[in-house]
């Protein structure tokens, strides 16, 4: 079953406009989630904001947003003031800029969404925008208010639709050079590299969604079922992988790994 539409609006490119709808491309609805309970009563625990000094609960009407400017000193802002600095329109994706498809690094990509025309009338205009981006090998850049914040978004032609990615903010992305610059640029020995290539080739397979399964989720569901039946779980906790206690010869390790891979 297709997920329920969570956003409707318009896709605009110059004078071409079409009505569209958007759905998140990923979901966490199947994840096991727990509530915090009072062990003595079995009742759910309710979270409340508490004054850090008086330790008394704060009424919702007295809650305010504050930006720290010093120790115990804040600039207070009202919700309507925060909303006023956002985009005037939250219902139009106006594409004004395009960049080469491969120009944006993976680290900027945040959340994917599926964008489709919301009625038959807009399908032709939607298709023209999609096919033109695909033909030029570019992606569109726009801005949109999503998840209560103004976001830069990227639009990529994909099959018969468009994938809209929210992009990370500039202050969220760290430069990889800050971490990789100190690493030695040594070249691998030819023999070691050849063996490693053989091992990787022997372990290469087609991508399948099962490779991204969550085994902990499955074990949690089994545990919950056992508890529902009021029986103790029989599944033993998987043993943690033991780390090697000594440094081994790389060539020997590669040969052993390759031999083991061939047996499997």
What would your notes on this structure say?
With 264 residues, the protein is an alpha+beta fold. Among the domains are: 7-26 and 85-167, Ku70, Chain: A, Domain 2 (Beta Barrel), CATH 2.40.290.10; 188-197 and 247-264, no CATH class. Helix content is 25%, strand content 26%. The protein is built from six helices and ten strands; from the N terminus they run ββββαβββαβββαααα. It has helices spanning 79-84, 123-136, 177-180, 190-202, 215-228, 250-263, and strands spanning 7-13, 16-24, 65-70, 73-77, 92-94, 97-100, 109-117, 138-146, 149-158, 161-167. A hairpin with a 2-residue loop joins strand 1 (7-13) and strand 2. The two termini are 39 Å apart.
Q: What key phrases describe this protein's structure?
A:
about 260 residues; alpha+beta; Ku70, Chain: A, Domain 2; two-stranded antiparallel sheet
Gist of the model:
25% of the residues lie in helices and 26% in strands. With 264 residues, the chain is α+β, with helices and mostly antiparallel strands. Among the domains are: 103 residues, Ku70, Chain: A, Domain 2 (Beta Barrel); 28 residues, no CATH class.
Q: How far apart are the first and last residues' alpha carbons, in Å?
A: 39 Å
Radius of gyration: 27 Å
Number of helices: 6
Helix content: 10-25%
Give the secondary structure arrangement, pairings included:
Layout: E1 7-13, E2 16-24, E3 65-70, E4 73-77, H1 79-84, E5 92-94, E6 97-100, E7 109-117, H2 123-136, E8 138-146, E9 149-158, E10 161-167, H3 177-180, H4 190-202, H5 215-228, H6 250-263
Parallel strand pairs: 1-5
Antiparallel strand pairs: 1-2, 2-7, 3-4, 6-8, 7-10, 8-9, 9-10
């Amino acid at each position: 079953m297709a997920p329920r539409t969570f956003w409707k609006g318009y896709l605009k490119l110059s004078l071409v406009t079409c009505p569209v709808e958007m759905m998140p491309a990923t979901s966490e609805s199947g994840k096991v989630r727990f509530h915090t309970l009072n062990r003595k009563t079995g009742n759910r625990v309710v979270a409340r904001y508490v004054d850090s000094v008086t330790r008394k609960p704060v009424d919702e009407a007295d809650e305010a947003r504050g930006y720290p400017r010093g120790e115990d000193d804040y600039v207070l802002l009202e919700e309507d003031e925060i909303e006023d600095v956002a985009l005037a329109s939250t219902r139009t994706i106006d594409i004004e800029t395009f960049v080469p498809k491969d120009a944006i690094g993976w680290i900027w990509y945040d959340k994917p969404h599926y964008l489709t025309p919301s009625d038959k009338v807009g399908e032709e205009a939607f298709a023209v925008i999609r096919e033109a981006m695909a033909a030029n090998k570019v992606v569109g850049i726009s801005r949109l208010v999503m998840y209560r914040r103004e976001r830069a978004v990227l639009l990529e032609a994909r099959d018969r639709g468009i994938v809209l990615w929210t992009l990370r903010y500039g202050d969220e992305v760290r430069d990889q050079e800050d971490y990789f610059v100190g690493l030695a640029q040594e070249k691998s020995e030819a023999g070691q590299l050849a063996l490693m290539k053989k091992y990787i080739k022997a372990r290469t397979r087609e991508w399948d969604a099962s490779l991204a399964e969550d085994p902990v989720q499955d074990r949690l569901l089994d545990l919950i079922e056992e508890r529902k039946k009021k029986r103790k779980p029989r599944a033993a906790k998987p043993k943690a992988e033991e780390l090697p206690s000594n440094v081994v010869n790389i060539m020997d390790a590669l040969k052993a790994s390759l031999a083991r891979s061939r047996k499997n």
